[in-house]
Amino acid sequence: MQELSPEEVRRAFDSEFNGLISEVGLKALEARFLGKNGAVRVGMRRVGTLPQEERAAFGQPWVRLERELKALLSERREAMKNSEYSASLQREYLDLTLPGLIASVGASHPVTIIENECLAILRSFGFALVEGMEVEDAYHNFDALNIPEHHPARQLQDTFWLSNGALLRSHTTTVQARVLGTRPELPIKVASVGRVYRNEASDATHSSMFHQLEGFWLEEGLSLSDLKGVLREVISQLYGDRKIRFKPKYYPYTEPSIGIDLSCTTCDGVGCAACHGAGWVTVMGAGMIHPNVLREFGYDDSLTGIAFGWGTTRLASQWAGVHRVKDLYGVQQRVLRQIYGDYR
Predict the structure, then answer these.
(1) How many domains does the chain have?
(2) What is residue 125's DSSP assignment?
(3) By C-alpha distance, which of 242, 126, 256, 249 is closest to 191?
(4) What is the CATH number of the domain that holds 185?
(5) Confidence at residue 173, expressed as pLDDT on a 0 to 100 scale
(6) 105 is a domain residue
(7) 33: containing domain
(8) How many Cα atoms are found within 13 Å in the side-chain-facing hemisphere of 24?
(9) 64 and 123 share a domain?
(10) Are 134 and 169 in contact (CB under 8 A)?
(11) Peptide bond into 187 cis (omega under 30)
(12) Co-location of 213 and 180 in the same domain
C-alpha cells in the first residue's frame, strides 16, 4: 500500500468505515488498515529508518491512530452483533403468554388395525406369520405359481419390473412359493402381510401400492368346505352379520377358485362409487392350491391345500367407511376424523 500520513490514513479509513453494513466488510477493512501489511503497519515501519531523536515524534501519531481505529472497529463489531441479536429476537419472537398447543393423541392406521385383526383370527386357527420380500424374482412371483410367460400380469402395464430383471412383488403369494420351497413339516399353516405393487391406479378402488394378506394351509384331506369355513369366520369377526357371497373365479395358482364379495358398507348394498354401483365389493380371492404348484415343489398329489388372499387396504376402507381406497394413504385430517372422530 502507498505510504500515507496518519491524517490521510484516517480520512481513507473514515470514508469506508461509515458505509460498513456487514461483518465481512468489517474484517476486510480491518485487514487493509491494521493487518500485517495494512496502512498503519506500513507507516509505523518507517520509525526504524529515522534517527533516534526523531522516532518518538514520528511514531506517536501512528500509535494513537492504531488505538483509535481498533476502538472504532470494536465498537462497530459490538453494534452489529447487538443489531443481529435484536433482529433474531424479532424473527423468532414467541409470546410466552399465549396458550400452548394441545398435542393430538395418535391412533393406529386402519390398515394396521385390519391386519392385526385378521392375524389374530388366523392365529386362532394355528396360522403362523411369515414375512416376505418386496423385491422378488420372476420365478417366485410367477413361474412357481403356475403363471405362464404369456400371462398378461407379466407385462409392463401390470407389473413394475426393475432394470436388473427383478420386480416389485405383485402379490404376497410369493411367500407361499418361498415356504413350499423349504418343504417344512406338515401341516403347513402360514399367513403373510405386506405391501404389493401393481400398475393400476385409475379409480377410487385401486392404487399402485396396497397392502395384502396371504394365507395357505397344506395338509391331507382339506376341501373347499374348510376354506369357506375359514373365510366366513374371518369376515364375520371383522364385519359382524353382513351379507357375503361366493362366486367362481380364475386364479392360475388355485383350482377351483372362488371370489368373496361383501355387501358394500359405504352404501349398504344400494350402489355407490366405492362399489362401482354394484352394491358388492370383492374383498377376497381364494381356492384350492393348484396341483401344478404343489408338484413344482415336489409334493405328492395326495396332499391338498387351501389358499386365500385379500387386500387389507380394501378391507380397511370397508371397515372404516372410506369411499376412496386412496384416501387411506393420504394425510388428510378430515379422513382421520371421519374414521376416529375427535381423536385428540
Answers:
(1) 2
(2) T
(3) 126
(4) 3.30.930.10
(5) 93
(6) no
(7) 6-91
(8) 0
(9) no
(10) yes
(11) yes
(12) yes
Residue 135 lies in a domain: yes
Q: Which residue type, as a one-letter code, is found at position 216?
A: F
Predicted confidence at residue 172, as pLDDT, reads 92
| One domain for residues 122 and 240 | yes
Give me the residue label for grid cell 381364494.
Answer: 286
CA neighbours closer than 13 Å in the CB half-sphere of residue 243: 11
Which of 60, 91, 122 is where one domain is finished?
A: 91
Considering the domain boundaries, does residue 103 fall inside one? no
How many whole angstroms separate alpha carbon 19 and alpha carbon 29? 11
C-beta of residue 196 within 8 angstroms of C-beta of residue 332: no
Give me the amino acid identity at 308. Answer: F
Q: Which residue in this structure is represented by grid cell 506517536?
A: 60
* Closest CA relative to residue 177, chosen from 311, 292, 45, 22: 292
Residues 123 and 197 in one domain: yes
In a domain, 97, yes or no: no
**Residue with the three cell numbers 372362488:** 258
pLDDT tens for the chain, residues 1 to 344 = 456 788 888 888 888 888 777 888 888 888 888 887 878 777 777 777 778 877 788 878 888 888 888 888 888 888 888 888 788 877 777 777 877 777 666 777 888 888 999 999 999 999 999 999 999 999 999 999 998 887 776 665 578 989 898 999 999 999 999 999 999 999 999 999 999 998 876 555 557 888 899 999 999 999 999 999 999 998 888 888 888 899 999 999 999 999 999 888 777 778 887 777 888 888 899 999 999 999 999 998 889 999 999 888 877 777 776 766 666 766 566 666 666 665 44
Q: Specify the DSSP element, H or E, that contains 194.
A: strand 188-197
**Burial degree of 249 (CB within 10 A; 0-12, 13-18, 19+):** middle
| 71 and 173 housed in the same domain | no
Q: Are 218 and 190 in contact (CB under 8 A)?
A: no
CB 43 within 8 A of CB 9: yes
